[in-house]
Each structure stands twice: as C-alpha cells, then as structure tokens.
Write the structure tokens for this entry.
Amino acid sequence: MKQRTSKDHNSQMIEGAILEDGKSLSNWDVFTHIQGGQRNGANGDVANDHYRRYLEDIELVQSLGVNAYRFSISWARVLPRGRFGEVNPTGIMFYNKIIDNLLLKGIEPFVTINHNDFPQELEDRYGSWLSPLMQEDFVHFAETCFKNFGDRVKYWITINEPNLFLSHATAAKLYHEHFQPKHGGFIGIVACAFMYEPLTDNEFDKEAASRALAFDLAWIFDPLVFGDYPPEMRRYQGNELPRFSAEERKFIKGSIDFIGINHYSTFYAKDCIHSSCILEGNDHIMGFSYITGERNGVPIGEPTGMDGLYIVPRGMEKIIDYLKKRYHNKPIFVLENGYAQQRQGIAVQDLLHDVKRIEFHKAYLSSLATAIRNGADVRGYFIWTLMDDFEWLNGYSIAFGLYYVDRPTLRRIPKLSAKWYTDFLTNSTITGPTSLQDRVVIIKVLRTHKKEWQQGRTGTTLPVSDSPEGDKFPILTTDLRRETHHLPPPPNGDRVSPTRKNPRIFQICK
C-alpha cells in the first residue's frame, strides 16, 4: 500500500446537475429545498458544476502535484431508485471518465461509497438508515460500485463518519471475498477524529479525556477491529449499549484493512462523574465528560472561520499516537484535514491571500511528521479540500478550498495556499514551521512503500502498488469528493438532526 498526498471532495457538494442524465433527487436535494432547513437558502443544485467541469477540476488536481484524489459516488446518480430500479448507465459512464482521467494523469482514485447522500426514494419508502432494509440497499450499491469500478479503484471507503457497523461489514465481506482477490485493493472506513485533552491536571479530568476518545473514536473502530464496543463504554453504558450477537461480532471483527480519520481540531474534556458540571442546553456531554474549547476563558487554540474549530496542531500527533497504540499500528490514512475560512463579508483578495491556511497545514504536517518519526504507519494525508464548495448546513458561507470558486461564474481561482502546496510537494518550499527535516519525513511517508502488505483475511500477499511513480511522492491528496467535517442531519424535515442538537461539536463533522 503506497503513501499518498491528496485532495478531497464529495459528490453532493460539488457536482450539481441534480436531475440530469437519469439522476434522481437525493435526500439532501430535497432537504435543502425545505423552507428554513438551510442557511441562506443555499443548495447543491448547481454547486461547483463539477458534473460538467470535471476535466478542468482534474487538471487542477494534477497541477498541485498530488498523487491521489478522494471523491464520493452519488448513489442517486448510479442507482436512482436504489435496488428498486435499474443501474443508470450515464452515471456509471460519468464516474468511469473521472477514474480513467485520474489514472491517465498518475493520480490514484480513493472512492467513498456513501458520504451522507442517498436516493430520496429510500427515505420515502422506509426511513432510510432508520430501517434494517437500508443495509440491503447499501450493499447492492457497494456491489454495483465494485463491479463497475473495482478493476481500477484500489482504495475504498465504505461510509464517511458512520455508526453503521453491519452495513459496512456486509459490504467489506463482499469485497474481501469476491473482489479483493482479483482486484488487489483495500477497504476501510473513515471516522471524525477529534483529540481530547484534560481540562486540568486533575486525574479525573485525565480519565474524562480518555473516556471522550473512547466514546467518540473507539466507539467506531473497536467493533471493526476487535468485534465489540470499547470496554470504557460498556462500563458506563451497561445494558443501554446494544450487544452484538456472537455471529455479528465475528462478522464485523477485522472488517477494515486500514483506519481512515478526518481530523480538524482538539478540545478539552472535564470530568462529570466525580465533579459537578453546570450545563446549558447546547453543551456537549460525551462519555460523562464535558467537552469545551476554552479553559478559564482562553481558547485551546486560535479560532478558525467555523465556530468550535480551533487550530491545535499538537492534536494531530496525539490522535495518530492514540490510534497507533490502541489498534496495534494498523495502517492509517488522514483523509481530511483543513482550515475553515469565513467567506461572508470578506473581500475576494483577502480570501485568495490565505496565509492562515498555509500556516495551518505547515503546523499540522509538522505534527504528523513527528507521529511518523515515532513509528506510526501513516499511509496518506488528504487536504480538505480542493476548492470551495457546498458545505452542508453552512452552505457556501465557509471555505476550505485551495481554490476559490467565484459563485456567479464558477471560475476556479488558485489561492496562495494552492501555490504553496505545489511548492511543498516539489521540494521548493523549505522555510516556515514545517522544517526541511519534517518535509523529508512527510514526503517519504507520502511515497510508495516498497514493502508488501500481508492480507491476513485472504492469506494472499498484495503488492502495495505497481505505480511507476511509487518512489516519488507519498500520498498527499485533495478531496474532490468533498467529504467532510460535519455530521449532516437525516434530511427529512421532521426529525431534529444531531447537528442541531449539538451545534458546537457535531456541525464540525460533515
């Protein structure tokens, strides 16, 4: 498995063309048109018009010098009616063209099967993920993707920031048994991964920070690696926590080939078991820990353009170290890491001169380099994101991109950060918080592993990569797919979304 430098994107956030060439309405297409459901009435009807401009966008990816690109596949474009209708050949053709053009330019596609959006018909039929029937639809969608794209796509992410263990495991089992032996690829999952530090040096607060990590991150990965929820959760949740049957535990255990994380920030955790916690309606409790971004009125780091996100570079090293130790140094991909920039009321020239974003990535990459030096098996790093886009509930008010998108014309304009990142990858930028030594480590990590990766499930040894450029760069990438950092609500207009229940934390993870 080779290491990559990359970029990210999500289909709902950039494609547009919501009813063209056989695509059906997705849940998010419907939700964004519900009165009062979306900030400033923003929607993804046009988004960045990537559906028509994908070749231009792939040129942008190549110009950065990255060797991988992460994007998601629109379920409603490939299977407009889920398993109740036929495969849309035009949708298949669209993603084939993206994949083929990426590979033609030496860019490895990283594909997320589901990034929050799905055909609205599945919501109308049985409430989508609230019904066990949705698992059958998801596996049908995953199999359709494996069959049509698996001969060229070697890196699969089942679900972005999920709690859908059985759906993931069913798709992973299908891939491991029927597609991995002939395609030689890998499959994993990605979780939103905040780091938590104790609010004080008090032992109870230290325990609270540990609990917060277990309730937030190990809650996802423990079942998929070890077959059960974390013992920290079992201890405090007791019978309230669902129990897997023996068959289910065997089924989900070991169902990921790699760990994928989206890391944006770090918070403090205060104990609420042995200490009193005076809470307000919006305060976030996790693992009986009070989560906050401030201590004595002082933020944990410099604020960004998004409420509740702070710049805390040390959190990158710490979260990687936590995963390394807990999961026996299983391969890790940092699949999202980016700086939130407020767009509203900011002059275009100031948005283009995004020095803060450059400083952010320098500092976080330096922290990542430290984790790698300490032995973490990090295989790739993806910047969130290639270009400004539709950011879920935030609409177009928040910008994460290396490219500015002029909304009236949809013209892509490189920001200062795009030029810096290109220089970084071509070894011509050495100054700043990311030292030469750090960059050497990162570029080495972002390059191809020459070792082979032993696949325990199949017993076969798969080569990491046969890319002719394998020795050149690691996996530093951008996300085309625009997967992200905010856990969106189930967009049906009736239910209160988790995003709105906990705006300080959950709106950060798309």
Observations:
- The chain has one domain: 4-198+208-262+312-508.
